[in-house]
Amino acid sequence: MKLLVTGLTGKVGTNFLPEFLVNEKFSGWSLRALCNNRVIDHSAVEIVRGSLSDRQAVCAALDGVTHVLHMAAVKESPDLAIDVGVKGIFNLLEAFRASKTAMQFVLIGGDCSVGHIFRSYDAPITESSARRAYPGCYALTKVIEEVMLEQYRMQYGINACCLRAPWIMEKDDFKYVLSFREQFGGPAWSDFLTAEEIARHARAGALPLLRDATGAPLKRNFIHVSDLVGAILLTLDNPAANGELFNVAMDIPVDYACVAAQLNASYSLPAVEISTPFHSNWLDNTKARMLLGWRPTVDLKLLIERAWAYARAPDDPRLVWYPG
Known about the structure:
By secondary structure, the chain is an alpha/beta fold. The protein has ten helices and 13 strands.
């Protein structure tokens, strides 16, 4: 068996690689990575250089491959969105369906295809819920990826699966999600607060207690990277995944009031209430639990404990994995 991975140098890829290499299920498999801007240096990984937008490079990368794990993505970069998010998956799927060795295609999708906190749902979001992308090219490309994969299954009968993940956390990411000083991701505090207010909250070490459009504490979906890697390992070469879309998220969405209460109890950190137009949603992971036998192991308590206990070494800088 030969696995081709795109995005192996990113957050999920760098966590996936060591787990894949020690997993007995994949003993005897070989690993190839399609790399463009960043290249991984590992003796167990064969490198093919090239862009996903280059059909010849993609065909070369698929040569002799049995399984594809497509994780490469860019965020709000309109000049790259079509090359990576549309042309990239099209080239991969075209080469995959024409291949005589290809057996399974696994896509890592995102909950931006269902709008995460930007769109309102009156029930838990399942795999059959309507796709409702929020404004921006990144969310659009994630919808296109899901739909293109679905249509290739219908048109050509390929064995394909999508794991739809929400915001992926590792190391001290979650601490910076909640920081007024060194913010990681959104929402931008400047959308709701003045510069003076942001600076004051940063000095106090305060936490944001976001409230949704109804005034209730915001509930947002997250997943720890270790749990996503676990879902990928269960999906690869698993007949139960054939033709399926799976939501893979923490069992319960993160409640910002619960976050504030836990961090106040543990670290005496004050909370700042912020009203937002966002919506509380629940990404239902029942299908993945039932068909894949997958169980997330990192709950809110552990997510907080890991983020606050993590100490960065000098050679472990915080990285922005995509533009945007």
